[in-house]
Specification:
Blueprint lengths: L1 H21 L38 E6 L7 E5 L2 E2 L10 E6 L10 E8 L6 E6 L8 E4 L10 E4 L4 E2 L21 E2 L5 H9 L5 E3 L2 H12 L33 H4 L9 E3 L5 E3 L6 E3 L11 E4 L8 H4 L16 H4 L2 E4 L7 E2 L12 E2 L13 E3 L1 E3 L2
Parallel strand pairs: 14-19, 16-18
Antiparallel strand pairs: 1-4, 2-3, 2-5, 5-6, 7-8, 8-20, 9-10, 11-20, 12-13, 14-17, 15-16, 17-18
């Protein structure tokens, strides 16, 4: 009996050992700049020649190469950061496409490294990066049917480092992307364009397709919703930011606060970037060539007429929301005041009714904006 028990114990131990071995995670060469292109004899994956990164391909940058172990994962590192999804080696090749706008927008040279499961070799290659956002700007990936190139947007509403004189006494100033400062208000569209252009070539006032791109990124990012998902249902709504007075300071405490709350001032984009005061605090002037609206409408964005959805609306259909959701601003999407159109286009909002990422106001003529102390603007940059 003791011998039989001993043999049974050994067999069970061997079986358990095999089972644990079968579920063991594959081992990769961890990223280390010093080990780049080392262990050539054991390196089983590499990259093809890399193309330069620019605004045309930054949202969907293709990387490919060769590999030796079919059906095995290839680990890809961009600037030392491993991708969430690893491509699979198939017939001696691997390929992936990745949005790099939130990873590489501060560096002129970008390093991409690859390794394969079971290999101690690490192949690294550098490429030129032309998609560089200025300080205070974030990378924004393109979205199909909305915008066709990646771009950079001010992380904050435009500010000045100095106190501003009255509008009629101002010379042309530079709109700055800064966390601290004086928000630039009481300005018309023409001056806002000049203030953005004062930063240099490539800078301009944000346009409506660019606003729509950012708004839809926010809409499709789960953490921006009260329930942590993007299900269209009662009780699930977006945060709308500050709706009480004008906040002049922006600090990292809002981003570091992981808890959702209605007046949280930051929103996260699909690429991991954060933007400030896109729903509330100030309404924002948007550069527009809209001459006529297809229909007139005043009401909440959730029931925006279909003729206006491409111009101002969300990606998804929220018409199932009903009057019980009034307290939540019908998903926190925003409000439209569009009973007429005289040339000025304001997005976002500054109070409890108008705040929202898709909010729009078309009821002001261009020359009346100089009197609006609750309207500012935001610049963009095209690398």
């Amino acid at each position: 009996m003791n011998i039989h028990f001993f043999i049974l114990t050994v067999l069970l131990s061997l079986l358990l050992s095999c089972e644990q071995s079968s579920i063991r995670k594959p081992q990769y060469q961890q990223f280390d700049r010093e080990s780049c292109n080392s262990n050539n004899d054991n390196r089983t994956a590499d990259t093809n020649e890399l193309t330069a990164i620019d605004s045309d391909n930054a949202s969907s940058y293709n990387i490919s190469g060769t590999c030796k172990r079919d059906n095995s994962e290839v680990k890809v590192y961009i600037e030392g950061h491993p991708l969430d999804i690893s491509p699979i080696c198939n017939r001696g090749r691997w390929e992936t496409s990745v949005d790099v706008t939130g990873i590489v927008n501060k560096k002129e040279r970008v390093q991409i490294a690859v390794s394969q499961a079971g290999s101690s070799g690490l192949h690294c290659q550098n490429t030129t990066n032309y998609f560089i956002c200025p300080d205070g700007y974030i990378g924004v990936p393109e979205l199909e049917h909305v915008s066709y190139k990646a771009f950079c947007a001010m992380k904050y509403e435009a500010k000045s480092s100095k106190a501003l004189p009255s509008p009629h006494q101002r010379s042309i100033i530079k709109a700055e992307a800064r966390a601290e400062g004086v928000p630039i208000t009481r300005v018309n569209e023409t001056d806002a364009i000049k203030y953005c252009e004062q930063n240099g070539p490539g800078y301009n006032l944000i346009k409506n397709p660019e606003w729509q791109t950012i708004a839809r990124h926010i809409e499709l990012t789960e953490v921006n919703w009260s329930k942590g998902n993007i299900k269209i249902e009662n009780g699930n709504h977006l945060n709308v930011g500050n709706i009480s007075g004008i906040k002049t300071s922006s600090n990292d405490n809002d981003i570091n606060d992981k808890k959702w709350h209605k007046n949280k001032r930051t929103h996260k984009l699909l690429n991991g970037e954060y933007i400030w005061d896109f729903a509330g605090n100030l309404g924002e002037i948007v550069q527009s060539d809209i001459s006529n609206l297809p229909v007139t409408y005043t009401g909440y964005i959730y029931s925006l007429p279909v003729q206006m959805k491409e111009l101002f609306g969300p990606d998804r259909d929220y018409t199932i929301l009903d009057d019980r959701e009034r307290i939540n601003g019908f998903g926190g999407l925003g409000y439209m005041q569009g009973n007429r159109f005289e040339g000025a286009l304001i997005r976002g909002g500054s109070n409890s009714r108008t705040a929202g990422i898709f909010s729009v106001d078309t009821s002001f003529s261009r020359d009346r904006l100089n009197f609006r102390g609750n309207v500012g603007f935001r610049c963009v940059y095209h690398p």
